[in-house]
TrEMBL record:
Species for this entry: Komagataeibacter saccharivorans
Keyword vocabulary terms for this entry: DNA-binding, Plasmid, Transcription, Transcription regulation
Protein name, as recorded: HTH-type transcriptional activator CmpR
Phylogenetic placement of the source organism: Bacteria, Pseudomonadati, Pseudomonadota, Alphaproteobacteria, Acetobacterales
Cellular component annotations (GO), alphabetically ordered: cytosol
GO molecular function: DNA binding; DNA-binding transcription factor activity
Protein family: Belongs to the LysR transcriptional regulatory family.
Length: 301
């Protein structure tokens, strides 16, 4: 069933690909037919929807508005289909989950594994996004649920559950710091450090803590990727400020030690499970929401 007009289908394809030619290849429709429908739509709306550039098609401000609305319409139709399936008692469906890369190493694999065991007919589509863009992406209709780190503005979202992870220093298990249950920043000053760089959120936290303690780190290396930092720590290059979430899997395997950092100015990393306040969630989405909440509750126990 195709409930949308050909214009809207063509518009969405061109907006995704930023190209009439690529949209035509996806839809197996002549590019001239797609262009004709786009022009007719622009005429009816009395405004251009695309800037036609030598490099392709770029949405205008009006086009961006229509694209956002169209994405929500498509998502609403998907939700309607899932609710109808719920009424029929069909034990299948799919849920789109937005999440930051930091969760891809420990938290998300556990979630997918549990889903496969308990609800094999439900497909969980995990979309890894930049943490800063997840809020906007969820509200644009590109996800059903989202896990977001250190959320700020939450007026448009319902927060289902929060979970805090401590910050601390990751080091090898044979490192002197590994003998401590917790440390203050001054205890780490003389050890070689791997400095987190932007765009990692910890880069600004690290700089702020160093400035507050009036300390200059003993820099062994700099890196802007958590996996690279972990590899350097495991190689014995130095220690690094990370959240427990970042090294959870390595600590559980015994490959690394994690020593919490204590002090009045040391923040926790907050993980929040959220959904769009304006959307009616399907029963399948609620079920996934409950499973994620159970995993988060287990982590905090």
């Amino acid at each position: 069933m195709q409930p949308f007009s050909r214009f809207l289908v063509y518009f969405l394809a061109v907006a995704r690909h930023k190209s009439i030619r690529k949209a035509a290849e996806e839809l197996h429709i002549a590019g001239s037919a797609i262009n004709r429908h786009i022009l007719l739509g622009e005429k009816q709306l009395q405004t251009p929807l695309f800037e036609r550039l030598p490099t392709g098609m770029r949405l205008t401000a009006a086009g961006e508005l229509l694209y956002g609305c169209a994405r929500r319409w498509v998502k609403d139709l998907d939700d309607l289909k899932r609710e109808i399936d719920d009424l029929k008692g069909i034990r299948r469906g799919q849920v789109d989950l937005l999440a930051p890369e930091a969760l891809s190493r420990a938290f998300l694999p556990e979630l997918v594994s549990r889903m496969k065991r308990t609800h094999p007919g439900v497909v969980l589509n995990v979309n890894i996004r930049d943490n800063k863009s997840i809020h906007h992406t969820l509200l644009s209709g590109e996800g059903d649920l989202a896990l977001v780190l250190d959320p700020e503005e939450m007026r448009d979202l319902v927060v289902v559950r929060r979970l805090s992870f401590p910050l601390g220093f990751a080091c090898r298990s044979d490192h002197p710091l590994a003998q401590h249950d917790a440390v203050r920043l001054t205890q780490c000053a003389d050890h070689a450090m791997i400095v987190p760089e932007q765009p990692l959120a910890l880069a600004s936290v690290f700089a702020r803590l160093m400035a507050a303690g009036r300390m200059a780190p003993s820099v062994a290396a700099r890196a802007n990727n958590v996996q690279m930092i972990i590899s350097l720590v495991m190689a014995g290059t130095g220690i690094c400020l990370l959240s427990y979430l970042d090294v959870m899997s390595e600590v559980m395997r015994g490959d690394l030690a994690f020593v919490p950092l204590i002090g009045a100015s040391v923040p926790d990393l907050t993980l929040a499970l959220v959904h769009d306040r304006t959307r009616q969630l399907s029963r399948t989405t609620r079920m996934v929401e409950d499973i994620i909440g159970e995993i988060m509750a287990g982590q905090s126990a």
